[in-house]
Amino acid sequence: MDQALNPFPWFRMMRESAPVYFNSRNKMWSVFRYGDVQRVLSDHTSFSSQIMDSNQPLDASIVNTDPPRHRQLRSLASQAFTPRAIAQLTPRISEIVHELLDHVVSRGRMDVIDDLSYPLPVMVIAEMLGVPLADRERFKRWSDQVVGAASSSAQDPQQEMSEYFLWMIEQRRREPHDDLISALLAAQDEGQRLSVQELLGFCIILLVAGNETTTHLIGNAVLCFDEYPEVVEQLLAEPALLPDAIEEVLRYRSPLKVMFRAANIDTKIGDQVIPAGQGVMAWIGSANRDEAQFPGAETFDIRRSPNRHLAFGYGIHFCLGAPLARLEVKIALGIMLERLQEIQRDRDVPLEASEAFILHGVKHLPIVFNGN
Question: Which CATH architecture has domain 8-46+57-371?
Answer without folding.
Answer: Orthogonal Bundle (1.10)
